[in-house]
Specification:
globular; alpha/beta; Rossmann fold; AB_hydrolase_1; 9-stranded mixed sheet; single chain; about 40% helix
């Protein structure tokens, strides 16, 4: 078995990446608008001089709820803005948006974070280009000697935070509850740190935010070496593109065969695969990998939260599934503790006993219904005004849920 795994790793990480030093563009891909739904919307925003066409969807509250006066509150918001995780899209929130509009009486928006979904994917830039230099500065990295390791600023967490705020401007949203799932959570947090007056409520669901030390510390040597080799491969244009294409090809096969997202319907699995039919998905994903950060966020949070979220009295809600193997509860607990330590007075922690990594998708055990009701409660101001609220697992027999990847 070990020999088979070694052979598999060798094929995927050595043979395939170097099989074609100059991979040609993929054929048969379509413009994003050709893949759009009837209710899809597009808007152009500018981030550091780069025009980005953002694909989004929204649900509006029924006229009767809009006409009803709401009692004034310092947490009054214009909308809920949802940010999906890696390999997701606005599709991840297709059920939550109408639920928020009907039950919370609020405008609900979800958009595709580049390079995912149907938003545009800025092209690779050469060194010396303003967008590339901004990405290098944002990542805290040293200047690259060649263009192979370049990534556009839009793909960095900081760039996506600026994109989120720019989208809010374009859609006329002054104040919002921003919800970030998994890899969307650090983007949501960064946006709140940049503009706390605009984000009075922050919901972090299965947050991929690392605090409490180097996330790679204690990792077995073979995994650490594999990660280092992966980082090297994605720094190279040809091998990196081959790696991305091969990885996604295998993921799509697993989805189609029901080995991944087995608890989701065939239509849903097909919808998650649809963005890989859009032009430029592979180059965009490569840049996103290059711009990604796995650093410990503790130092930054301790430096910025006391000067941003704490004085703004931001309400922070952290939600995680007990069965989440992608972002285990320990990560969320550590994040909660750091936020409290940094002076955030209103922290709500929710551990969902039967959920795994995709609570907005999981039907078994009523997970999706429970999650949607929880978010509605958050938007309506549930959980108290101040203080630390912690909800732990219920003492009852739990139904098994297939862990999401």
């Amino acid at each position: 078995m070990a020999t088979a795994k070694a052979q598999k790793d060798f094929t995927e990480l050595v043979v395939e990446p170097f099989s074609d030093p100059d991979p040609k563009p993929l054929v048969g891909l379509l413009p994003a608008r050709a893949l759009a739904d009837a209710d899809s919307k597009f808007v152009t925003v500018t981030v550091r001089g780069e025009a980005v066409v953002v694909h989004y969807k929204e649900s509006s509250p029924p006229p009767e709820s809009q006409s009803q006066s709401r009692s004034p509150s310092p947490r009054d918001i214009d909308a809920v803005v949802c940010l999906h995780g890696a390999n997701g899209s606005e599709f991840s929130f297709r059920n939550l948006l109408p639920r928020l509009a009907s039950d919370a009486g609020v405008r609900a928006i979800a958009f595709d974070r580049p390079p995912y979904g149907l938003s545009s994917r800025p092209k690779l830039k050469k060194n010396g280009d303003a967008a590339t230099d901004a990405a290098t500065d944002a990542a805290g990295a040293t200047a690259t000697a060649t263009a192979t390791a370049a990534a556009h600023f839009v793909y960095t967490p900081e760039g996506q935070a600026e994109l989120t705020l720019a989208l809010m401007d374009a859609l006329g949203v002054t104040r919002a509850c921003v919800l970030g799932h998994s890899a969307g959570a650090p983007v949501a947090l960064d946006a709140a740190l940049r503009a706390p007056e605009r984000i009075p409520t922050l919901a972090l669901v299965a947050p991929a935010i690392f605090v409490g030390g180097d996330p790679l510390a204690g990792v077995p040597l073979d995994r650490a070496l594999r990660f280092a080799w992966f980082r090297f491969l994605i720094s190279q244009d040809g091998p990196g593109l081959n790696l991305v294409r091969g990885s996604v090809r295998r993921q799509l096969a697993a989805i189609e065969e029901g080995r991944t997202y087995a608890n989701l319907s065939e239509d849903v699995r097909r919808a998650y695969a649809r963005p890989t039919k859009a032009e430029g998905w592979d180059e965009g994903l490569l840049q996103s990998f290059r711009a990604g950060s796995f650093a410990d966020a503790s130092e930054r949070l301790r430096r910025e939260v006391p000067n941003a979220l704490a004085p703004a009295k931001t309400k922070v809600v952290v939600v995680v599934g007990k069965n989440d193997r992608t972002t285990p509860p320990a990560l969320s607990e550590a994040l909660r503790d750091v936020l409290i330590e940094c002076g955030v007075e209103d922290v709500r922690y929710e551990l969902m006993p039967t959920a795994s990594h995709l609570p907005m998708e999981e039907e078994a055990g009523g997970v999706r219904e429970t999650f949607e009701a929880l978010v509605v409660d958050v938007v309506l101001g549930g959980g108290g005004d101040g203080g630390v609220t912690t909800t732990t697992e219920k003492e009852e027999e739990e139904e098994e849920v297939t862990p999401a990847r």
